[in-house]
Amino acid sequence: MKRIPYGKHHITDEDITAVVETLRSDFLTQGPKVQEFEEKFAQYVGAKYAVAVSSGTAALHLSALALGVRQGQKVITSPITFVASANCVRYCGGEVIFCDVNPETILIDVEKVEAIVKGNPQVSGIIPVNFAGYPVDLCELRKVADKYGMWILEDACHSLGGYFVDGNNIKHYCGDGSLADLAIFSFHPVKHIATGEGGMITTNRKDLYEKLLMLRTHGITRNAELFTENHGGWYYEMHDLGFNYRLTDLQAALGISQLSRAEEWLRRRREIAQRYNEAFSGSYVKIIYPKENVYHAYHLYVIQVENRLELYNYLRSKNIFSQVHYIPVHLMPYYRRLGWKKGDFPNAEGYYERCLSLPMYPTLSDEEQEFVIKTVLEFQK
């Protein structure tokens, strides 16, 4: 069997044509394709506004800036995520407070969030992470946020196309802006759609949208309505200390093409997940089943086993390259120096000791998946 990775991008002839057409156009950096991508993406997730940026990390950083994170403020997030979810707070001078996860969902524990906020009046916001594609119940988190005057920045990098249905039978799509102030996405090659590197911020708040547009481009505006003076048609002003976090037209063209297949690929991910679920039911493998009315996006398919290292090595010996998501952020040397230590979050740390991400991507063939399943199950023997 050929090498089977845990994740894999897929580029079609249509994708290549879209990029080549842009190469032959008048714009390579930021041009009409970026705006088209933003509009189509906002429509897909159901948000009013979208701002394309150079990476998911850039999306987090700009969002933290736009929300006013600064020195002396505290922000809560999960330790089970990529480090960027926490680092964006540090970039702005803020303090990260980690909150343990629910062991059944591996999502931030909302009850624990409220307990933290009660003892920390300087907490200004929450960054919940839709880990592996499992949407956080933002209805419950919004109640806590509103009660204590906090904002919500939804890290939806794993969950494009995912949603949950609330008690009033209303669908809340990840990133639709109905419950979070801002949401961010990543277009890294192993995500649902790829632009090489790239990210998107979505929101329903016009004030944040306009601030993000400025921060994305050095803090510069060309909107004459915002000028303090005007010297002519060439004139622009820098109002904030911003960054060059722009996406290029080349990347946007690829993103538009990939987005046209997002639903098809999401259906395939759910088919693969269902086959895994059926195969591992009743075995030594622990599975994370979504709750009723939760529609998982399955960026990752994560299992938990007691002998994770041995299984990881056994799979590699069979040319199956699984991965671990994630090493708890609070155990990274940088965050240990800030005072966090092993034992702080038993649910997150216990999960890390057992977790393994199996191959999950739309072009994973039935034959390849059967080989993965067979290999995982035969390991028990």
From TrEMBL:
UniProt keyword list: Aminotransferase, Pyridoxal phosphate, Transferase
Residues forming the catalytic site: 191 (proton acceptor)
Residues making up the signal peptide according to the UniProt record: none
Highest taxon, organism lineage: Bacteria
GO biological process, one term: polysaccharide biosynthetic process
GO MF, one example: transaminase activity
Modified residues (N6-(pyridoxal phosphate)lysine): 191
Pfam name, any one: DegT_DnrJ_EryC1
E.C. designation(s): 2.6.1.92
Transferase as UniProt keyword: yes
EC class (word): transferase
InterPro entries registered for this protein in UniProt: DegT/StrS_aminotransferase, PseC, PyrdxlP-dep_Trfase, PyrdxlP-dep_Trfase_major, PyrdxlP-dep_Trfase_small
Family of this protein: Belongs to the DegT/DnrJ/EryC1 family.
Protein name, as recorded: UDP-4-amino-4, 6-dideoxy-N-acetyl-beta-L-altrosamine transaminase
Organism: Candidatus Thermochlorobacter aerophilus
Gene label: pseC
